[in-house]
Amino acid sequence: MNKKEVYQYLTDCGIRYEVTEHQAVFNMAELDAVELPYPEADAKNLFVRDDKKRNYYLITVKGDKKVNLKEFRRVNGLRPLTFASAEDLMAMMGLSPGAVTPLGLLNDSENRVKFYLDSSFGDGLIGVHPNDNTATVWMKASDLVRIIRETGNDVEFVTIE
After folding, report:
1. Residue 19: enclosing H or E segment and its boundaries?
2. Burial class (CB in 10 A: 0-12, 13-18, 19+), 15
3. Which helix (H) or strand (E) holds 44?
4. Cβ atoms of 79 and 55 closer than 8 Å
5. What would the mean pLDDT of 83-98 be, rounded to a whole number?
6. Residues 6+ apart with CB under 8 A from 136
7. N or C end of the chain: smaller count of CB under 10 Å?
8. 131 within 8 A of 6, measured Cβ to Cβ
């Protein structure tokens, strides 16, 4: 799904959302320069894989948090983790680096990616890219979880300090 298709999908699912259009951003430092209406709800996304290239994970946390992959692996009982390649990102979620988002899971037709969501989002707002890094979509985190689960991907809540 491209950006417009994501908006239509959210509308078709009855999800209330708001969009902030902005210049393309490729990392959190660039996003800091963008005027966002809900900066406390902005998400950072990490697309990682295990050392055997068998399991892929999307980790979504609040934008001001850092994820220690060694600690994350230990707490969640996973094999050693590393960042997945741009080729894997495109093949599994149809995304390019800089546009990583949970909404990319809508393109994961084989449900290969397990989704870990920072529990501190609770049922509040979350801001994620609409499969394109020139906008941020704001919606309830519970709505995001619902549509991800409806596509068949696993969702697990995690505590990231």
Report:
1. strand 18-21
2. middle
3. strand 43-50
4. yes
5. 94
6. 19, 20, 22, 36, 42, 127, 128, 129, 130
7. C
8. yes
